[in-house]
Amino acid sequence: LNQKCLQGQGNEVFVLFTPVLHFLDSVELLGQFKEFMVRYNRTYSSQEEADRRLRVFHENLKTAEKLQSLDQGTAEYGVTKFSDLTEEEFRTLYLNPLLSQQNLQQSMKPAVMPRGPAPPNWDWREHGAVSPVKNQGMCGSCWAFSVTGNIEGQWFVKTGKLVSLSEQELVDCDTVDQACGGGLPSNAYEAIEKLGGLETETDYSYTGKKQSCDFTTDKVTAYINSSVELSKDENEIAAWLAENGPVSVALNAFAMQFYRKGVSHPLKIFCNPWMIDHAVLLVGYGERQGKPFWAIKNSWGEDYGEQGYYYLYRGSRLCGINKMCSSAIVN
């Protein structure tokens, strides 16, 4: 066989197998998409919609792969229950654009920071101050969950009782914030003070949409006296958390759409600290495989991340995690 013949054979083989490779890729993609639909109970209104969601799913897989290849932590990114949503849909349904609008921020008095250093690790889940993970649904009410989580912790630290408190009360009765359209923790604390406190989750249960305010003073279970803004130094935040309880915080949630487990450390290009758009609850901190982390209670259900939790690299002000740390005060 001469060189020309070998080249011919090589080209023919390449031409023959290229469509087969594309076919195999498509089969694998369809398999992943079908598995996603079954796992998260997805149905679509038409074949056109299903085809569109498959395309979005495919693009999201590429984004997750990019995050994975560039992550500096131990995180695993991939298929999540948000994998059929575009970035814009995800932001509209689950995030909170008001958080990055500095002009809307209420001024808060500064917290008195501890003088001593933070212990090497701390987790309020181990001390009984954290209620089970909740689910905000398709409503940008993360701000309400962040604040109630903080107050649940404060109430526990002061009284020894852990009570699940009502986010729906804030969605319905906080007249400054915008319910499912987003809100700010600083406004929410003020609303709670004016209302006189929070009812329990049982008495004022969550629906995930704004309704008329049905708050009853007689049913108030927890109250607050004031609220404070924490330092922007992560060591001081850790020290305050360990001494006082879980902290309401906000961050840029871009990488969270595809997060599955591990300590997330996305590049700054994926996690602009000035574009914070999701409020969550810092419940603790520590180190895993040499990576310092924040343990973050999210409000997207227990089928998100690690049993509803997100772990973010600690110590480099990542994703703006240090920019909006606050807490209620219960005297």
UniProtKB/TrEMBL annotation:
Q: Which Gene3D superfamilies match?
A: 1.10.287.2250, Cysteine proteinases
User: Residues in domain Cathepsin propeptide inhibitor?
Assistant: 33-90
GO MF, one example: cysteine-type endopeptidase activity
* Record-linked CDD domains: Peptidase_C1A (cd02248)
Gene Ontology biological process: immune system process; proteolysis
Q: Which reaction does it catalyse?
A: The recombinant enzyme cleaves synthetic substrates with Phe and Leu (better than Val) in P2, with high specificity constant (kcat/Km) comparable to that of cathepsin L
Broadest EC class assigned to this enzyme: hydrolase
**InterPro entries, per the entry:** Papain-like_cys_pep_sf, Pept_cys_AS, Pept_his_AS, Peptidase_C1A, Peptidase_C1A_C, Peptidase_C1A_papain-like, Prot_inhib_I29
Regarding protein family, the annotation reads: Belongs to the peptidase C1 family.
Protein name according to UniProt: Cathepsin F
- Please report the organism this UniProt entry assigns to the protein: Oncorhynchus kisutch (Coho salmon)
Designated gene of the protein: LOC109879818
